[in-house]
Amino acid sequence: MRRGTKLWRLCSGSKNCRTYSTSFVGKKKEFLNVSNKSDEEIKEMIAEGKILTHNLEEHLPSHLSRAISIRRSLLHQSASNSLQKSEKPQNLERRLSQLDYLNNLPFENYDWTGVKDACCENVIGYVPIPVGVAGPLLLNDKQYYIPMATTEGCLIASTHRGCKAISESGGAHAYVLEDGMTRGPVIRMPSVERAAKLKEWIGNTQNFYKVAGAFNQTSNYARLSTVKVNLAGRLVFMRFKSSTGDAMGMNMISKGVGAALQEIRSFFPDMEELSLSGNFCTDKKPSAINWLEGRGKTVVVETTIKASVLSSVLKMPSASTLVYLNTAKNLIGSSLAGSIGGNNAHASNIVTAIYIATGQDPAQNVESSNCMTLMEEKEGGDLYMTCTMPSIEVGTVGGGTHLKPQEAMLGIMGVAGANIQNPGENAATLGMLVAGSVLAGELSLMSALGAGHLVRSHMELNRKKHAAPTRETHTLPHNE
């Protein structure tokens, strides 16, 4: 593809204008359409180097499933040839037969148009994941059904039970305390003195406005709120934080940071941009900075579970049992383990299942699952419970949210697409639903642990019934 430059102009007055540029993908390269050729002819063209395997969809734009079928055939053939050259003769037949497993990976009857140039490359099929629903969850005085994609039996049933307990107790209420995606580039300066000057310069309010002006010009939704600067020797780490509307916002903020760095460079021409991401963001890695300062949506959700519901739905004799267990497990146990953001029972379970179902980035469950679960006993034996989640990264546009199945799951919750009247509201609601679902999952699992039901429920719902395996006798070398 040809890359181009888009220009942005920022003016503080009639004469004081500065032009910024951000790279963009220009006109696409034209590909030879080979739809009129047979599969074997196309394979010959690939063998001759006239077509690249990863570009098959470009050469067969109206026959995407056929492109995938050809790629699967080539993969099987290539793997077979490799095995015949490298595998031991006694293992060759077994290893070749294992290649037939590819036939169990479906690829037909799927709309690949939304995937092409957006979600996946070198496609050979798709992996169907069961989707279930938990709820209704009564959150902020509205009822929601929560779609979850998982292969872990008992997870949805448990979350569903938590939703029932919350709803029968009057519901939960969630609040978005902060909303801002981050990107943290790393800059190298000639010396510590110059690095310190740069930090001081960004800390000046007027200079921040200059940087924010350049940043904000790149998007209708991105609005820079803060830039946190840390030094490590002469390396300068800047953590830009910005609202991103209904998008999760990584691409949006990356473009804004690029323009902001150009503005900074006009005052510090000796700066060297090492990387747009210097792990100060922090994306898809455990970090204290996300736990302490947040990333994406910072959400707190609360509920009070009636004593009668604790007994009837959760089979717990008292709130005090749960409170003590929560302190021992989620607070003390996690502290002994040196956990960062892990003061919870299994927040990641619920986060990941919802993310897969709704087209989020599953890898971001690392920071999105940061959660502190707290419990208190109230007068009358009721249980007061909260989950604090400082870094839920979600969007209702972009990523995989436009794929029809994932969009349908967002639709079930009433948050599909962008909110035109109140930009950002759909994504904020999704963030609160994630936190509310985690609250339900935490409540149910902690109750199962407190009542000693965890193993029994998993044995009933998470164990595939198989025939008993045939016992084989193995002679170990040290027993000869």
Throw out a few tags for this protein.
13 strands, two-stranded antiparallel sheet, 40% helix, 9-stranded mixed β-sheet, disordered N terminus, 480 residues, 16 helices, disordered C terminus, alpha+beta, globular
Question: Care to describe what's here?
Answer:
The chain is an alpha+beta fold. Helices cover 40% and strands 21% of the residues. The protein is built from 16 helices and 13 strands. The strands form three sheets. Strands 5, 6, 7, 8, 9, 10, 11, 12 and 13 form a nine-stranded mixed sheet that branches. A two-stranded antiparallel sheet has the order 1-2. Strands 3-4 form a two-stranded antiparallel ribbon. A hairpin with a 5-residue loop joins strand 1 and strand 2. Helix 5 crosses helix 15, helix 7 packs across helix 8 and helix 12 packs across helix 15.
SSE order in H/E notation? EEHHHHEEHEEHHEEHEHEHHEHHEEHHH
Going by helix content, strand content and strand pairing, the class is: alpha+beta
Please give the largest β-sheet: 9 strands, mixed
Distance between the termini: 64 Å
Summarize the structure.
The protein is of the alpha+beta class and 480 residues long.
Describe the secondary structure blueprint for this structure.
Layout: E1 3-11, E2 17-25, H1 39-47, H2 56-59, H3 64-86, H4 89-98, E3 131-139, E4 142-149, H5 155-168, E5 172-183, E6 186-188, H6 192-203, H7 205-216, E7 223-232, E8 235-243, H8 250-265, E9 272-275, H9 288-293, E10 296-305, H10 307-312, H11 319-336, E11 342-343, H12 347-358, H13 365-368, E12 371-377, E13 383-392, H14 404-412, H15 425-451, H16 454-461
Parallel strand pairs: 11-12
Antiparallel strand pairs: 1-2, 3-4, 5-8, 5-10, 6-8, 6-9, 7-8, 10-13, 12-13
Helix pairs in contact: 5-15, 7-8, 12-15
